[in-house]
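Memo to structure team: turn this sequence into structure tokens by end of day. - J.P.
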Amino acid sequence: MSWETYRGVFKNFGTAMSQIEILTFVGNETIKDFPSNLPLSLKDPLLAGMRQMSNVIGVVLKASESGKRLRKSIAASDSDPTKGKLLESVVTLIISSADVTKPKKLSKSFQIGFERLLGSQKLVMSFAYLDAFMADTLRAVCAARPEILKSAKKIDWATALGFEKKDDLIVHLVERYVYDFGWLTLSKRLEFLRKEFGLDIAPPEKEIELLHWAENIRHVAVHNGGRVSAEFIERTGKTELVLGEFVPIEFDELEKMIIAVRLLAGDLFTSVSKKFFGVGEHQLTGFLRRGRGKANIAKKRATKKTINRRHR
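Reply from structure team:
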């Protein structure tokens, strides 16, 4: 892998991070006071469909009162880009959110659910992009210094003889190397990169703590629906959290996490570019970098907003 290719990988990482941020910002504004802020192309067909459904329900109920059985269907509007799928999802959501003890009052808890899902999506995908970039970085280092693959690990004869070319065998070894690397926690991966490759990567302790917290939220978001597990409490030490409840996600902390992820990736790209590709400082421009001497995480005066707080 050439440095130009590696730089392209890093640019793709930056693009993906920007996309998930834009998606989250736009999505969060769009779902406020749902469905009022939906684009007209979605809102108009949705409201028309709901009015149509309300009329159909009235007709069916009136027929049932007189002992008749009546079936009615609702056709999606030709202008509906979702072909009725949005209407179907919204109706299902309303039904599932209804408080059966108060038939005339629908629960609005799904509003908070939207925000929680957006926050979780942003966090999960940010770490997915970081994981992918770190894996590609390891591939770049192996390509630049194949001797790195020399280790005490062994490969059986059957596997080795299954490759016709030496290059194919090397690719297999690299991928196995990357696979094993990917199972480590973020802190362990950074320790590995410093120890094995001598990379200059030393984020401030506060950033490491923030990323450790976010990494564990990512785990429960993916594997436990975002709810607190015994393992989560053990890993984070957050004994005040209650098993089975949603892990609180604070939007201001989420923004700090995004900046920390970008800075960490920038640290990694800078260190690898200099050490393994001989790139000069003047070539390392156009991305978020850590300020010299101090961490360059901007302090935002964002209104603290905790989503998925415990409902009583």
